[in-house]
Amino acid sequence: MGLAAILHRPARKLATVLTTATVGFLPLGEAFAQSRSLPIVRDAEIEALVSDYAAPILKVAGLNSRGIRIILVNNNSFNAFVDGRRIFINTGALLQAETPNEVIGVIAHESGHLAGAHQQRLREQMERAQTMAVIGMLLGMGATAAGAATGNSSVAGAGGGLALGGTEMAMRNLLSYQRTEEITADRSAVTYLEKTGQSTKGMLVTFERFANALSLSGARVDPYRISHPMPRERIANLQTLAHASPNFDKKDPEALQLRHDLMRAKIAAYTSSAGSTARTFRNNPRGMAARYGDAISTFLNGSAKAALPKIDALIKEQPNNPYFYEIRGEILLKANDPAGAAKAFQRASALDPRKSSLIRMSYGRALMLAGSKSAMPTAVRELKAGIARDPDFPQGYQYLAQAYGQMGDIGGAELATADMHYYSGNLQEAKIFAMRAQQKLKRGSPDWVRAQDIINSKKPSK
């Protein structure tokens, strides 16, 4: 399913969620809270590529059996962070990284945090810091009270300073701990890259980017009041290790670089201005990536009729690329040709080695929009197959509800709508539709039980 179906607002209109120079991690609670409201991007092509980047790193880090997920965030800053068993990567990081190796270095760093259980340790450090701050405040309050009782203003003033000093000390200790963990994650990343036979140059390029951005901003930063080492410090810590690697000058395979460029072209087309793709690939304006971005931009900002021959030319060059057919399907949907779109999505699904749930749901949706009663069972089958692999994707249930409605299965439509609201976080609406569904479903059937589960569900405690 193309980014157009997921992104409801251009990235340039979104507020920046995280600061540019923060390739690291957030405290568990804060990261989880943000993950509930972050503008998440879903795209089969990008998810497949980033998963390929991550697979060897997660394996050598001992994380491949822990069900680590990579989540794409629609934000144009260069950033990534972890939360639980998830690695969040901004689309801005993917767009700005000129080579796969730069993104792989970021994933290696975040994997270092996960493998080192840094989140759990950070939570323990936060609890200690809170205890230190409370003790400092209590001591300060005691000194202030004693000064007031004796009429000694200097003692009372010292008490206030003691309270503030305790809080400041706790904060500095916590930030110092975080900086240490960042350095540890950097070194772990170097180890993972070395074990997988990949270059560490991408990490240095990333830190150089941060250093240059900080210099251009003109900001004066207190190094003791930030959670990450200064970029120049990180470069200095890693340079000797990085250059000692026999893989330092190793380049990414050409085929992987092309996939990376195609990804960047897609992100630029969907999240930036119309001319962003041309600027991104100004050194190779007739390359495949530039033409891919142009085809998508034409379809988004111009006409589907003009975009179709552009994507068809790319399909002729790479007839087994499933994502070219996926974009062709999106173009045909915009051209009000759902039957043609269904054929394109069917071809994309057949070629897709990962059998993406998003592409299968797009196929089912196109069949549903085509309106043929004979094709509706296939539409439902494809939508349910996609949902089975991606059960927390609300739009899949929305399409399924529409398909059931066209088939006259009102109970199924009501239950799918209940699931759509449930996975969107709208529990009250989910319960209303679940109760409506139960009135039309056979009591005790799997669908009836599912509706009952929604009715009995409670909001998670904060």
From TrEMBL:
Keywords: Hydrolase, Metal-binding, Metalloprotease, Protease, TPR repeat, Zinc
Segments crossing the lipid bilayer: none
GO cellular component: membrane
Gene3D superfamilies with a match to the protein in the record: Metalloproteases ('zincins'), catalytic domain, Tetratricopeptide repeat domain
Renumbered ranges of TPR repeats: 322-355
Highest taxon of the lineage: Bacteria
One GO-annotated biological process of the protein: proteolysis involved in protein catabolic process
Record InterPro entries: Mito/Outer_Membr_Metalloprot, Peptidase_M48, TPR-like_helical_dom_sf, TPR_rpt
Cofactor(s) required, per the database record: Zn(2+)
Pfam family for this entry, one: Peptidase_M48
GO molecular function: metal ion binding; metalloendopeptidase activity
Domain Peptidase M48: 43-240
Protein name: Putative Zn-dependent protease
Protein source organism: Phyllobacterium leguminum
